[in-house]
Amino acid sequence: MSVTVVLDGAGLHAWARRIPPRQLLAVMEVLRRSGAGRVLVPSVVTVQALTGDAPDAPINQTLKQVDVDEILPLDRTRTAARLRQATAASAVDAVVAEAAARTRAAFLVTSDPEDMTVLLDRAGATTQVVTV
Amino acid sequence: MISGCTDASAPVSYSSYDDSLGPDVDAELLDELTEALSKTRQGATTKPVSVTLPTPLAEAFRLLADRGLIDSVSVATTHALEEALQAVIVGMRLDAIYAEHPEAQPSEEDIARMAERAGVALP
Description:
The complex is a heterodimer of chains A (132) and B (123).
Chain A: E1 3-7, H1 9-16, H2 22-34, E2 37-42, H3 46-49, H4 57-64, E3 67-69, H5 74-84, H6 91-102, E4 107-110, H7 113-123, E5 128-131
Parallel strand pairs in A: 1-2, 1-4, 2-3, 4-5
Chain B: H1 27-41, H2 55-66, H3 73-100, H4 108-117
Helix pairs in contact in B: 1-3
């Protein structure tokens, strides 16, 4: 079984840490033991995750080890916009949630579980939100 | 190298893996695998290779390709291998973390609980 893990900006930062949080390690163990999977990062999250400065090096290295989704066509932004309607979620959060729902991700790793849960519920996704 | 900082929440640095990945982690191999995965995802050139598959599997995928349900057997195979490589790279990263910080390793119960949450049946 293939396991997809979607990271938002905080999730990306967490995975780039010297010692990632235990719950994220457990998520990645599930992926490893499944024998196949994707660690997906919509490229828009790097707007929040990167600073454009030297401290970005570990994040940039981590980005090489994950699947950075650099394509954001209009149909996906329309879906994200619909998910975000009447919520407090940011546009970036909506894009991340849309990616998780579209790819039927098993996990979404985030520091904003409330907004992400609302967005995923609106998308009808069964993705599990893991907080870091 | 994973930097010498001691702050557990600090980001990891990969300029060299020499000491910090632990004795069982092949840093050079991890670098090569990471580079291969990155280049593949950026649309690397392709080359024909011969692989041996169980006949029913090969025929099933040829049927799917013929009916337009998958782009091609090559694309499906690439996708599967890419996902397998991702799992290996994640595993090597986990082993590196555990080699340096065994206390960070989640328990079997933690892992089983996480898998159950997502409805993932672990082998």
